[in-house]
Amino acid sequence: MQVDTSILGQRAYVPALAPAPAAVPAEPGEQSQAGALTAESDSAPGVTVTLSAEGLKRSQQTAAKNADIEESDLPDEVKQLLKMIRELKNQLDEKMAELQAQMAQGDMDDDEQQAAVRALQLEVGTLNSALSTANAQLVKVMRDQNLSSEQSSTAASLMAR
Fold first, then answer.
1. Where is this region: Disordered (predicted)?
2. Smallest Cα–Cα separation from 142: which of 130, 131, 128, 155?
3. Does residue 129 fall inside a structural domain?
4. pLDDT tens digit sequence for 27-81
5. How far apart are CA 114 and CA 102, in angstroms?
6. Buried/exposed 5-15: b ≥16 CB within 10 Å, e otherwise
7. Could you tell me which of 108, 109, 112, 144 has the fewest CB atoms within 10 Å of its CB?
């Protein structure tokens, strides 16, 4: 029996839920193609991802926050940009709150407080820049995809939320 050895060195893709291929009896001293695939897939490590309760909760909250975007009739690229803009706005609000809290804090010496405030101001500036870039990209994508006036107003209302 002749075995094509060119495929034996390659990693085989075998879906996890598919039954293993039936073993083909091989002549003594030879390994069958099906046996090679089974041996290869049995020794391949699997990846398991487990989310904590907090991670699941945050995932569900994020999905719920963006449900209105997902349910809209907008193209996928516009939806992704709207989600990104929304997330950047949330991050910006959080950093602004941190900055205000840091500026109100009086328990640090002046140099430490100034350094902390400057670091937060830098982060706020970076988020503002990213938000401006995402807004410009959204306008470009909307123009390139020739959205209807109804779709454009839907996008604008979703962006304002």
1. 23-44
2. 155
3. yes
4. 555 444 444 444 445 556 778 878 788 878 777 777 788 999 999 999 999 999 9
5. 9
6. eeeeeeeeebe
7. 109
In this structure, the chain runs to a length of: 161
Which residues, at least 6 apart from 67, have a Cβ–Cβ distance to it below 8 Å?
Answer: none
DSSP 120-147: HHHHHHHHHHHHHHHHHHHHHHHHHTT-
Kindly state whether residue 32 falls inside one of the protein's structural domains: no
Cβ contacts of 88 within 8 Å, gap of 6 or more: 127, 130, 131, 134
**Count of domains for the chain:** 1
Residues 74, 155 contacting (CB under 8 angstroms): yes
Structural domain range at position 113: 73-160
Asked whether residue 38 is domain-assigned, the answer is no
CA distance 13 to 37: 9
